[in-house]
Amino acid sequence: MLIIALKAAVDFLYGVGTLLLGVYRGILMAQGVHTDLTTPWQCVILPPIFLSNISVQLMVIVNVVVSIDRYMAVAYPAKYRLMGISYAKKLVIGITSIGLVALIGLWAMVYFGMAYAPITPAFTRMCTNAVLPIWYPKCQTTAVALVGLLSVAIYANVFTAYRSAMKNVGQTSTQQVIRFFTFICLHL
């Protein structure tokens, strides 16, 4: 349940980031200052910008973790029950750490890695993807798609494991009923 709560929290952060980004850009356009110049650093430290960028990455990671968690629950139910809440807490701490490292990496990439000075006003206050290096959105989109496909592949295995478990349960129950009634009928 803790992992699903983390998924909900990451989805909420993405929603808040996207909503704030829309409100921010709407206010800029209403005030007529959307074409004013700003620095890449001022763009990337805006909560709507970094929330929407980092939460996209975290959403796919959490989806894969949920997929693996469901697979463990279906394919290895006895082991899964023994894992307890401590493993879920470790996963939450690990995913949160990945998010913080990605955020620091995003900030460092803009502050130290740009070809131009991050304090030079070169972008509009709308802060579109131009503040990031050209390769960043392409790599992010590719990684999100590949990790999403991994999640789908894991869920296919969850489906297969579930069907296999249900077939075994169904056959075992049916065999037990047949044996029970056969025993009763033979001893009448």
Question: How would you describe the overall organization of this protein?
Answer:
By secondary structure, the chain is an all-alpha fold. It has one domain. Helix content is 81%, strand content 2%. The chain has helices at 2-31, 40-44, 47-75, 77-113, 135-186; strands at residues 37-38, 123-124. The protein has a two-stranded antiparallel ribbon.
Largest sheet: 2 strands, antiparallel
- What form results from the Cα inertia axes? elongated
What is the string of SSEs from the N terminus onward?
HEHHHEH
Q: How much helical structure, as a percent, in the residues?
A: over 70%
Mean pLDDT: 82
Distance between the termini: 51 Å
Secondary structural class: mainly alpha
Number of strands: 2
Rg over alpha carbons: 25 Å
State the domain count: 1
| Side-by-side strand order of the widest sheet | 1-2
Number of helices: 5
The share of residues in extended strands comes to under 5%
Given as residue ranges, the uncertain stretches (5+ residues, pLDDT < 50) are: none
Keywords:
membrane; 5 helices; transmembrane; G-protein coupled receptors family 1 profile domain-containing protein; single chain; two-stranded antiparallel ribbon; 188 residues; mainly alpha; 81% helix; transmembrane helix
